[in-house]
């Protein structure tokens, strides 16, 4: 089995799942689903932003910069949606 890159704060390596498969092994039809899985894993805190960006560079080449900011857009949307909810509770 392949292993994913080690966490900066840890000396252990994690056994990889299909998410960490080399992008060279992916068919172009699988790129979007792999991209969505990367975003989910990044937002859940399971992968680091550097690894996310490296994977996107492998998938999309020079056009990956658009996707680099997508995680921040989603985080800001969630923050804006939750702010009124927190005000109503507090």
In terms of structural class, how would the helical and strand content be classed?
mainly alpha
The outline comes out as elongated
* First-residue to last-residue Cα separation: 49 Å
- What is the total domain count? 1
Average pLDDT number? 76
**What low-confidence regions span 5 or more consecutive residues with pLDDT below 50?**
6-16
Sheet of most strands: none
Tally of alpha and pi helices: 4
Question: Topology, pairings included?
Answer:
Layout (H helix, E strand, L loop, with lengths): L30 H14 L4 H12 L4 H4 L1 H20 L1
Keywords:
90 residues; mainly alpha; 4 helices; 56% helix
Could you describe the 3D structure shown?
By secondary structure, this protein is mostly helical. It has one domain. The chain is 56% helix and 0% strand. It contains 4 helices and no strands. The longest helix has 20 residues. The chain is elongated, with a radius of gyration of 16 Å.
Question: How would you briefly describe this protein structure?
Answer:
With 90 residues, the protein is mainly α. The protein is built from four helices and no strands.
């Amino acid at each position: 089995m392949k292993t994913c890159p080690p966490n900066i704060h840890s000396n252990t390596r994690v056994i990889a799942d299909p998410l960490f498969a080399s992008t060279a092994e992916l068919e172009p039809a699988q790129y979007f689903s792999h991209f969505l899985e990367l975003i989910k894993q990044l937002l859940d805190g399971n992968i680091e932003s550097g690894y996310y960006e490296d994977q996107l560079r492998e998938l999309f080449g020079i056009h990956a910069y658009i996707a680099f900011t997508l995680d921040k857009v989603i985080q800001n949307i969630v923050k804006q949606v939750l702010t009124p909810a927190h005000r109503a509770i507090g």
